[in-house]
Amino acid sequence: MSAQGGAVTVFAPAGELTMASAPAVLEDGRRLARAGDLVVDFAGVTVADSAALALLLDWMRCARAAGNRLAVRSLPAGMASLAALYDIDSLLPLEPPQ
């Protein structure tokens, strides 16, 4: 994904992304999603639960509302499994594997 006339920001939360830690990164992701095209790279996430999926959906809404694009890189298997369970996996804008 490349932004028209500008660079794409990569946001890489790290460590646990759970109910306990999600509030700490919520606003960072929102701000970046509103500012321009964004790639959320989950490679550094060690534990993720449904709160991580909720964050991602929130950031997707923020990006869309601002007219920006968001892509997902290195989605953890647990998040992919939850997305499939909730039948929203087709909504996730996954980057193609490299």
Write structural notes for this entry.
The protein is an alpha/beta fold. 40% of the residues lie in helices and 18% in strands. It is built from 3 helices and 5 strands, in the order ββαββαβα. The chain has helices at residues 22-35, 50-65, 77-85, and strands at 9-11, 15-17, 38-41, 45-48, 70-73. It has a 3-stranded parallel sheet with strand order 1-3-5, with helices on one face. It is globular, with a radius of gyration of 12 Å. The relative contact order is 0.20. The model has no long low-confidence stretch (mean pLDDT 93).
In a nutshell, what does this entry contain?
The chain is 40% helix and 18% strand.
Q: How many E-type strands?
A: 5
Give the H and E element order: EEHEEHEH
Radius of gyration: 12 Å
> Percent helix among the residues?
25-40%
Oligomer: single chain
Q: Order of strands across the widest beta sheet?
A: 1-3-5
Task: Give the count of helical stretches.
Answer: 3
